[in-house]
Amino acid sequence: MIARPARAALRSSLPRLPRMAAPPFIDANILLYAGSHAPDDAVKKHQAGQLLATLDFCLSSQVIQEFISNALRKKALGISTDQIEAVLRCLEDVTVQPVTYELILQAWQLRRRFQVSHWDSTIITAAQILGCTTLYSEDLTHGQDFGGGHVVNPFR
Q1: Can you give the chain as a three-state secondary structure string?
Q2: What is the pTM of this model?
Q3: Residue-level pLDDT at 3
Q4: 7 belongs to a structural domain
Q5: Which of 19, 77, 110, 141 is the most exposed place for a label (fewest CB within 10 A)?
Q6: Mean pLDDT score of the chain, rounded to an integer?
Q7: For the residues 52-63, what does the mean pLDDT come to?
Q8: What is the pLDDT of residue 17?
Q9: Per-residue confidence (pLDDT) for residue 18, from 0 to 100
């Protein structure tokens, strides 16, 4: 092991590489709009599809659960079970943050600090754990900063 002063000298002599930001985090509404067949969603469907096609992104198991639940429940979206399965296959290589006990405890604190719902705090915390500085969502306030990560509503 290199002594602390030697490590500092070594670190300072190395070229500084740009810090790689984590990919953005997406909320379930992005997936829902991308798959929607509702005529009123046509513009958002295009925007969500473009976003998903051009970005590497992260999400959480909660986001996947919300997508499936709403796709099955909201018949007006016209998302078939085959489409849900196709989305699940497309998410195979995406980083997915599981909802763990530790995440729930952190989300509880964030909920109290920022006065957001439990479900929103769990999504925000999952994004923070993954190191995401951008969270794409229609449900949260555009531009709001949650301690290092900010919300972007791509449909504004």
Answers
A1: CCCHHHHHHHHHHCCCCCCCCCCCEECHHHHHHHHCCCHHHHHHHHHHHHHHHHCCCEEEHHHHHHHHHHHHHCHHHCCCHHHHHHHHHHHHHCEEECCCHHHHHHHHHHHHHHCCCHHHHHHHHHHHHHCCCEEECCCCCCCCECCCCEEECCCC
A2: 0.84
A3: 44
A4: no
A5: 19
A6: 89
A7: 96
A8: 43
A9: 47
Residues whose CB falls within 8 Å of the CB of residue 97, separated by 6 or more in sequence, listed in order: 58, 59, 60, 61, 103, 126, 127, 129, 130
Residue span of the structural domain in which 73 resides:
21-152
Structural domain tally of the chain?
1
Residue 16 placed within a domain: no
Confidence at residue 149, expressed as pLDDT on a 0 to 100 scale: 86
Residue 141 lies in a domain: yes
Q: Is the pLDDT of residue 7 over 80?
A: no
Please report, for the domain that includes residue 37, its CATH number: 3.40.50.1010
Of 138, 142, 115, 149, the closest CA to residue 48 belongs to 138
Of the pLDDT bands very low, low, confident and very high (cuts 50, 70, 90), residue 20 is low
Residue 13 domain flag: no
